[in-house]
Amino acid sequence: MKKLFVYLKNYKKECVLGPAFKLLEALFELFVPLVMASVIDKGINGGNTAHIWQMIGVMVLLGVIGLVCSITAQYFCAVAAVGFSGKIRTKLFAHIGRLSFKNSDNIGQATLIARLTSDINQLQNGVNLVLRLFLRSPFIVFGAAIMAFTVDVKAALVFLFTIPLLALIVFAIILGGAPLYKKVQSKLDAILNITRENLTGARVIRAFTAEKAEIARFEENNRQLMARALFAGKITALMNPATYVVVNLSIVYILYTGAINVNMGTLSQGEVVALVNYMSQILIELVKLANLIITVTKAVACGNRISDVLDIKDGMETEKSDDTSDAMVEFRNVSLCYSGGENSLSDISFKVKKGQSVGVIGVTGSGKSSLINLIPRFYDATEGAVLVDGRNVKSYTLSEIRSKVSVVPQKAQLFKGTIRSNVAFGNSDATDEEIMEAIRIAQAEDVVNAKGGLDSEVGQMGKNLSGGQRQRLTIARAIAKKADILILDDSASALDYKTDYNLRKSIAEIKDATVFIVSQRASSVMNCDMIITLEDGAVAGIGTHKELLESCPVYEEIYYSQYERGDFNE
Questions:
Q1: Is the CB of residue 152 less than 8 Å from the CB of residue 226?
Q2: Positions of CATH 3.40.50.300 in the chain
Q3: How many angstroms separate the CA atoms of 163 and 551, rounded?
Q4: Among 558, 566, 481, CA closest to 524
Q5: Which residue ranges does the chain devote to CATH 1.20.1560.10?
Q6: What's the CA gap between 136 and 472, in Å, rounded?
Q7: How would you classify the pairing of strands 514-519 and 538-543?
Q8: In the chain, count of helices (H) and strands (E)?
Q9: Which residues lie closer than 8 Å to 235 by C-beta, 6 or more apart?
Q10: Pick the CATH number of 86-311 from 1.20.1560.10, 1.10.287.3510, 1.10.3720.10, 2.102.10.10
Q11: pLDDT per position in the chain (570 positions), as tens?
Q12: Distance (Å, rounded) from C-alpha 45 to C-alpha 275?
């Protein structure tokens, strides 16, 4: 949490002026009971109407000055709090964008979203309230006690008993409630995760008519969140009745002793009213202070959670390596293990020359995507070495290695904007001619023409396009980047066989590009220069289509599950 305070350094002026104006407001507020006492003693009891109007004018003046001070303080505090949270949000967003896939998988997307939204909002509210009340409330409490002693020492002795007792009640309830609010926040993460799963998987849920089950799951977690929040609320709700009992008993004592002293002539009626007002001020400020501490407790918990994410290293640091290779891509005894699991890839070795096309085939879960994810360093191999263009990928910076690789993921991802902005996403300098050439290769010309040109709108996540249209535009985006290595990770699954054939034919015409085609369709990889067949994360066979049909039972089984024996492709 302390590390986050560095983001307040540009708001030193606001952090000083905000509390300073709040203290001025509090100072003027402390004079109000004395003015009221003067109204009663000299104005009402003395029958001095002019004095009453004079004191009313003084109170109005104090109120106006206090209002100006309060508004000024609110402005400075808001500027500091919003600026502080804005800088943290920017820093956190940039940091999350640099996290490796491994770290993102471990943390969870719902947790990261919660850190960026609710946690930062809680932190912003905490900073705002601290700047406004952290000095003001104690100042009012002790200031009211001191002012009470200036009115009458004997009558004010009750303050010495009341303030510590109120503080004890307030802080006891806070210490009991703070851990409960942490549990509430953690349960909120679970609710966010369920909500995200239901929104992203809405079609699957409807397809399997699982709405009732998902509603029941959400309601159960929501009930648990409500139960925790209610329990925490009940604990903190004890504060008001407990403090009001103590304060009202103190006020009764002041009125009782005050009445005796008024009859004896040692205390005036206005002074008794002033003492009661000071006691009320103390109550109000202690309740404010209690709420402040609750908010600060939440903010500190949220700040620690944000710091924990910021402290995570991206896990993809550049390392020195003497490994060299004459191939464009080489895997040397590579194994990959995700966190807390068994090897997803085991002892993978192969070489790919520049300009070659490589097919990667295997049944679902065989490790195809895991293999190609090692090339752009989405993940790092746990054993062995992956070399690109003669160097170990770990010796590249992330920007260097990813400038050499262009990936079309399994799930087509488009951004809100235009067709032009999406296709030129990886190459901002691409001309319209280059963009249209990439679109032609990706068999997406009909999409552009149907939508009305390159400036036609693309909805968020490409929601206004069909699955095949999205896939073709993501392929065009990868081609437009003009990277040395092009990876198509099962990116033609939504395309018909004719479009898939034309796409592969066009991609084969790209000069000097090393192409990896990941697919479960034998037709998509059979014409590749090399086909890597995977089974349970291990290489079952490497070779051309004809070689694998003769020597690899796994490839043969996949092929004949899609083609009849005796087909001309054999």
A1: no
A2: 411-482
A3: 88
A4: 558
A5: 86-311
A6: 62
A7: unpaired
A8: 21, 12
A9: 173, 176, 177, 180
A10: 1.20.1560.10
A11: 677 888 888 898 999 999 999 999 988 888 888 888 888 888 888 788 888 899 889 999 988 998 999 999 999 999 999 999 999 999 999 888 888 777 777 777 778 888 888 889 989 999 998 998 888 888 888 888 888 888 888 878 888 888 888 888 877 877 777 778 778 877 887 888 888 888 888 889 998 999 999 999 999 999 998 998 888 888 877 877 888 888 888 888 888 888 888 888 778 888 888 888 888 888 788 778 777 877 887 788 888 888 888 888 866 778 887 778 888 999 999 999 887 678 889 999 999 999 899 999 988 888 898 999 999 988 888 899 999 998 999 899 888 898 999 999 888 889 999 999 999 998 888 899 999 999 999 999 988 988 888 999 998 888 888 888 999 999 999 999 989 999 998 887 778 888 888 888 898 888 888 999 998 888 888 889 999 999 999 999 999 999 999 899 999 999 988 877 655 455
A12: 18
Domain 411-482 has CATH 3.90.550.10: no
| DSSP letter for each residue of 299-355 | HHHHHHHHHHHHHS--S--------B-SSSEEEEEEEEE-TTS-EEEEEEEEEE-TT
Q: What span, in angstroms and rounded, lies between the C-alpha atoms of 444 and 420? A: 12
Residue 297 CB neighbour total at 10 angstroms: 18
Q: Which string of DSSP letters, residue by residue, matches 37-90?
A: HHIIIIIITTT-HHHHHHHHHHHHHHHHHHHHHHHHHHHHHHHHHHHHHHHHHH
